[in-house]
Amino acid sequence: MYISIILPTYNRAHIIEECIQSVLDQSYKEWELLILDDNSSDNTYEIGIRYQNLDTRIQYHKNLIRLNLLGNKNKGIKLAQYPYIFIIEDDLILDKDCLLNLVKSYTELSKNFSVGAIAPRLNSPYPRENIPDKEPFVLRKISGEIWNNYDVDGNIPIETFTLHACSLIPKNIIYIVDGYSSAEYIGNCFREETDFYFRIRAKGYKLFFEPRAEALHKNEVKGGCKLNNEIKTHFYCIRNQWVFSRKFFHKTAYIMFPFFIIQYIYHKIIQDRIKKRKQIVSKKNSLLV
Predict the structure, then answer these.
(1) What's the pLDDT band for 220 if we cut at 50, 70, 90?
(2) Virtual CA dihedral for 73, 164, 212, 82, nearest 10 degrees?
(3) If DSSP codes are grouped into helix, strand and coil, which group holds residue 123?
(4) Are 62 and 37 spatial neighbours (Cβ–Cβ below 8 Å)?
(5) Counting Cβ atoms within 10 Å, is residue 44 exposed (0-12), middle (13-18) or buried (19+)?
(6) CB 42 within 8 A of CB 121
(7) Cα–Cα nearest to 198, from 206, 210, 190
(8) What are φ and ψ of residue 245, in 5° steps?
(9) With contact defined as beta carbons under 8 Å apart, do 84 and 2 qualify?
(10) pTM of the prediction?
(11) Helices 13-24, 44-54: inter-axial angle, 10-degree rounding
C-alpha cells in the first residue's frame, strides 16, 4: 500500500524541517512526500530543494502564484502518483509509527466498512477546555458549532461524523466528492475540511479517528492560512460557518446561526481574553515573588 503524503506550506521555513524529518523517520517506508510551497517569501525553497536532493521519494513544488491552502491541496492531489493520500500540515511532527498505525487500521476496517478517511490523534501542547474527554468531535446541534478534541486517547478506532484536516484518504474518494471546495471558503479556510468530510459521508463512506496513530500538533500561529489580523480571523470564521450551515443545514441554518455567533463570541473571544488576563496577572505575581 503506497501512500502519497501531501504537505502544503506557506512561509513556515522555521518549522517545516521538523515535519519533513518526522516523515523521513517513519517506520512505514512505502510513501512519497510532495512539498507544495504556496509561493513562500522565506527560505522554504532552499529547504525543499535540499530534502528533494536528499531522498528520491521527496518532491518539491513551488507555485509561481499563490493558490491558497485549498487550491494547494488540490494541486498536490493531482500530482500524487499513489492511490492513497495522507494530507499533513507543516506544524505537525509525526510519531515514527503514525503512518504504520493508520495503514494497519485502515486495512482492518476496510474488511467490514467502506472507509472514506481515517485520521490520527493530534497531541496538543496546549490544554483544551469545555470538550467531552472521550469524543474527538462534538456537534452542538442548536448552533452547528463543532468542538474538537484531537488528542483523545484510546486503543480502538472511533467512528466520527467529521475529522480534522490531516487524514489518510483513498484518492478515488477525493475525486468522487470533487476535492476541496476552494471557491467557497475564503480567508482562513475555516470549515473547509468539515465540508469535505460531510460530502464524503453523504456518499455512504465512514470516517474514523485512530488514537493509536499519533502526531504532535504545534499549532503554529504564523504563516500557513493563519491571518495576522484578529478581527479578520473572527470575520472569516463567522462568514465561513454561515456558508457551511446554509449548505448542509439548509433552512435550519437561520435558527442555528444566531446561537453560533453567541457561542463563538463567548468561547473564542471572551474566554480567550479572560485567559490572557490571567496569564498577565500570573506573570506579574511571579515577578513580585
Answers:
(1) low
(2) -20
(3) strand
(4) yes
(5) buried
(6) no
(7) 206
(8) -65, -45
(9) yes
(10) 0.89
(11) 20
Please report how the helices 253-264 and 230-249 are oriented relative to each other, as an axis angle in degrees rounded to 10.
Answer: 150
Q: pLDDT tens for residues 16-66?
A: 999 999 999 999 999 999 999 999 999 999 999 999 999 999 999 999 999
> How are the residues of the chain apportioned to helix, strand and coil, as percentages rounded to the nearest 5?
45, 20, 35
Strands (E), 113-227: 115-123, 137-140, 145-148, 158-160, 168-170, 206-217
d(CA 134, CA 162): 15
Per-residue cell: 171: 484518492
Q: What is the pLDDT of residues 79-108, one digit of tens each?
A: 999 999 999 999 999 999 999 999 999 999
117 is written with which cell numbers?
478517511
Q: Name the pairing type of β-strands 206-217 and 92-94.
A: antiparallel
| Single-letter amino acid, residue 166 | C
Q: What is the spatial distance between Cα 104 and Cα 162, in angstroms, rounded to a whole number?
A: 20
What domains appear along the chain, each with residue ranges and CATH number?
3-229 (3.90.550.10), 231-288 (no CATH)
* Single-letter amino acid, residue 25: D
Residue reference for cell 515514527: 96
